Amino acid sequence: MRAERIYALSISMSLLSLSLVLVAPRSFAPPSGASPPRVLREVPVARILVGSGPDRISDVGCDDCGDICGGAPFLGPDGTVYFIDFAHNNLKALPASGAGRIRVVPGPPLQAQNDQPTDGTVGEDGTIYLLADRTTHQNRYRVYYRRPSDTTWQEAESLDDSDIGWTEIGGKRVPAGGTTRIGVNSGGQVEVYGLDRRKSPAIVVGDRRGPLRAAARTRLAPGALLRRGLVVRTSGSATAIGPSSQAPRIETPGAFLGTDSQDNIYLRAPGRESGVDILQRYDPSGRLLASGTVPARPTQALVEGKGAFQVSASGDVYQFRLTTRGLEVTRWTTEATP
After folding, report:
1. Among residues 92, 180, 227, 306, which one has the fewest Cβ atoms lying within 10 Å of its Cβ?
2. Domains assigned to the chain
């Protein structure tokens, strides 16, 4: 599940919608003597059940969501799984191993419904950041943060931007709700940015030491690069990755998910059957390293924030599903499992 113009994404996933290029699928033959692609296998991590307790997911007051309320998961740099529970207004933290108790942190005080955070990230200093998009024309974005030593949530100075999170309807520019995210880039900066990085800049709201005051915030230009100078170009469900001045190294009908700490590239491509996905791991040269087939499964509510598939720094792809039973967390890995 990092996310900037130099994106070695470990916690920001499908966030790099860049230069518009439509590509046809292309396969890559492995170099002579290279190992065949490995298999990504699914391993259960944890389940948060529906219930009234703070360590459960509420199914009360969710008329717009069916039988279960939604929420937004995100990954910490150490593999901790976080889940923003909308109805309970709390943050649940699951150990990376999936074993042990769920840690529950009460959410920030909300003055209105649109103060609800819908995305989050964790800085390198351990500070947890939550982003709320109020879809208003003034004081639109609220960033809540909680340092490791804090006992309550703090609210950063308000953030407005004339470019991030807007669309045009009937000739008028209006806020586009659900199009803004918060993540950590490869320089350790915490950014607020729009989903479409072809057009959206990024606002740096924190660094390796913690949150920044408004006067210290910086603005990054639109466009995004991976490390090693690779550019991601997407259009719809097609993705091309390669040096900006050369032919793409990877061309696929899949959607870009992110990269791991080794700069391997992760994509989600459609399977032949409806609802089936193919997860793919490529190295920076475009060689397919691993793949796995994700079966079609029913879900009950939309996974908000960075989405249902997020890449960890270690190279596992976490999958999040909201069902009638609760939140199901699994990871797709090439590690040997018992």
Report:
1. 227
2. 38-333 (2.120.10.30)
